[in-house]
Automatic annotation (TrEMBL):
Keywords: Glycosidase, Hydrolase. The keyword Ribosomal protein does not apply. It comes from Vibrio variabilis. SUPFAM superfamilies: (Trans)glycosidases (SSF51445). Gene3D superfamilies: Glycosidases. It comes from the Bacteria. Belongs to the glycosyl hydrolase 1 family. This is 6-phospho-beta-glucosidase.
């Protein structure tokens, strides 16, 4: 009873802008991520003023992917979640014809995965978009981006329809509320009105992509991806319960639209009470209603608490919340809450009654290499073990769970801080915050632990 489903997908998750490097090779254009050399900060700069950053090379997955995929196969992966860099396909975003060198690169990458028995699980836009679309159109604030994204989606669906059967549209789409430049290409001081208008355009693009995928690749499945920012009431005071409901609604809104195809009543009330008017055109609501995703995917790193009383909030994974006195924190101040994953899985399945997929979960920590050359990351093993045990419990509760791809199976550049020292991987990469290092890959203790978990289909997990 404690094993995972027979066809469960085991693997890891990476993002092009955090692993590939080669930021200006083979015709690739400059992305919004390339404009953030120090992580999630408002750039307020031109491309000419852009500073070099650690992401320019990252871990050089662009050239080293055969070696890394071989290591993933050694662990037993049957799935790898990755993203296509939009700027490798359409460097400026508005071209009529794609960049063949970019398309050919992902052909080789997907072929390599297939040769090693791994299913590619592809995100169309993972925290990046062509920076030229920000410069020339104002990012997702412009409806024109719907057309450009549709062209990009159609291009990759048609090109890879025989190689990729699992797709996601926008990574952590609700992050736009916390990091507008990363999410929708707006400056960090953009108004709520501007952000929600841009989000409307992105939701329409999401619907177009869902419908295109169903048309072009009928045997594929396409899902959405939420930042699973689960909030508990800080106390049993009904005001705190309502505060938590409000906080959860802020991100569940995206799942509601992408699944149910309409703006929920609670968001319409929020818009009314905050003076937000979404400019909709004829056919917008019909488009949203036509495109329900096939499954719900999400990241889960930590939970938070919400209170009706003004209290000091702390930030973990960009999202702020009232600290939970019952939970311990990671080195980066994120609350560690494995049971929250079971709560969230049941919560989402009860709400949507669609298959779920945990596409990000992991522990960022400073790893030390011993004099013998080993990395003993028992803290990471404990974190992942405890979360996977709770995923098992949710399956026993009746949740339909498709798979688990832990974040950063190989060390990569952290999105929020652009650090290498915030390591997630089962595989150590010899690169450091100052850019030094050989890029050598080395197996950590967790590498062999995850290998055993996959081989045993979860039977080796410790309860």
């Amino acid at each position: 009873m404690m094993s995972f489903p027979k066809h469960f997908l085991w693997g890891g998750a990476i993002a092009a802008n955090q692993v590939e490097g080669a930021f200006n090779q083979d015709g690739k254009g400059l992305s919004t991520s390339d404009m953030l050399p120090n992580g999630i900060l408002s750039p307020h700069q031109t491309r000419e003023e852009r500073n070099e950053g650690i992401k320019d090379l990252a871990i050089d997955f662009y050239h080293r992917y055969p070696e890394d995929i071989q290591l993933f196969e050694e662990m037993g992966f049957n799935c790898l979640r990755l993203s296509i860099a939009w700027t490798r396909i359409f460097p400026n975003g508005d071209e009529l014809e794609p960049n063949e060198a970019g398309l050919a690169y992902y052909d080789k990458l997907f072929d390599e995965l297939a040769a090693h028995g791994m299913q590619p699980f592809v995100t169309l836009s993972h925290y990046e978009m062509p920076y030229a679309l920000v410069e020339n159109y104002g990012g997702w604030g412009s409806r024109e981006l719907i057309t450009f994204f549709e062209r990009y989606a159609r291009t990759v669906f048609e090109r890879y329809k025989n190689k990729v059967k699992l797709w996601l549209t926008f990574n952590e789409i609700n992050m736009s509320l916390h990091a507008p430049f990363t999410g929708v290409g707006l400056q960090e001081d953009a108004s709520e009105q501007a952000i929600y208008q841009a989000i409307h355009h992105q939701l329409l693009a999401n619907a177009k992509a869902v419908n295109l995928c169903h048309q072009i690749i009928p045997d594929a499945k396409i899902g959405n991806m939420l930042l699973g920012a689960l909030y508990y009431p800080y106390t049993c005071n009904p005001d705190d319960v309502l505060a938590a409901r409000h906080e959860n609604n802020q991100w569940l809104f995206f799942g509601d639209v992408q699944t149910r195809g309409k703006y929920p009543g609670y968001m319409q009330r929020y818009f009314r009470e905050n003076g937000i008017t979404i400019d909709m055109q004829e056919g917008d609501l019909e488009l949203l209603a036509s495109a329900s995703v096939d499954f719900i995917s999400f990241s889960y790193y930590a939970s938070g608490c919400a209170s009706a009383d003004p209290k000091d909030k702390e930030v973990g994974n960009i999202v702020s919340g009232v600290p939970n006195p019952y939970l311990e924190k990671s080195q980066w101040g994120w609350l560690i809450d494995p049971k929250g994953l079971r709560v969230l899985l049941n919560f989402l399945y009860d709400r949507y009654q669609k298959p779920l997929f945990i596409v990000e979960n992991g522990l960022g920590a400073r790893d030390e290499v011993t004099p013998e050359g080993e990395i003993i990351d028992d803290y990471r093993i404990a974190y992942l073990n405890d979360h996977l045990v709770q995923a098992q419990e949710a399956i026993l509760d009746g949740v339909d769970l498709m798979g688990f791809t832990s974040w950063g199976p190989i060390d990569l550049v952290a999105n929020s801080t652009a650090e290498m020292s915030k390591r997630y991987g089962y595989i150590y990469v010899d690169r450091h915050d100052d850019g030094s290092g050989t890029l050598e890959r080395k197996r950590k203790k967790s590498f062999y632990w995850y290998q055993d978990v996959i081989r045993s289909h979860g039977q080796t997990l410790s309860k």
